[in-house]
Every structure is written in C-alpha cells, then in structure tokens.
Amino acid sequence: MAIFRGVLPSENKADFIAHLETNMLPLIRDFPQISSADALLPRDSDPSLGDVQLILDMRYANEDAMNTALASPQRAQNGEETKALFALMQNPSVEHIVLGD
Fold this sequence. Notes:
Elements: E1 2-7, H1 13-29, E2 34-40, E3 52-60, H2 63-70, H3 73-86, E4 90-96
Antiparallel strand pairs: 1-3, 1-4, 2-3
Helix pairs in contact: 1-3
C-alpha cells in the first residue's frame, strides 16, 4: 500500500483524480507480476487521518513478484507520475506499507 498525505486544495481535486485515473493507475496496472491495483479516495475519516488524499492498494502473488515490479521501468516512470500528483498538493508525502499473508 502507498498512502499519499498532504493538503489537496479544492481547486486541484479534479486534476488530481484525472491524473490518477488517466496516467498513474494504468501505469501501475502495467507493472510486471502485479495482481491488482486499486485507488481508494477517502471521503471522511478520523481527524488524525484528515490529510490522507489517496491510498493505493497494490497486490502481488508473493514477495518475488513485488520485487520484480519494483525493479521495472514502469515503476521508475511511476516516480514521475507521483511528482505530478505531489505538484497538486501542499506538504505532500507518501508512506509505503508492505503486508504479508
């Protein structure tokens, strides 16, 4: 999982979602050996999570599959797509969480 935090000005929300759906998600779904990739957009949450703008849920069959995806050119390009999302936010950051079975 990747948790994107920061302030998303209301005037940037449509561009944020459009970039996510048009550029980022198709690229992530093209990662080698990825099983699924979904974007979760919080509508309302605990106040301590109020700065969460996006949660990317990416699934792999196993750790080797994940490592293959992380070493791919698509993953490298995704870094550029992340920068584009960050440009729409104030004080952006991303946290990665790896969960096992």
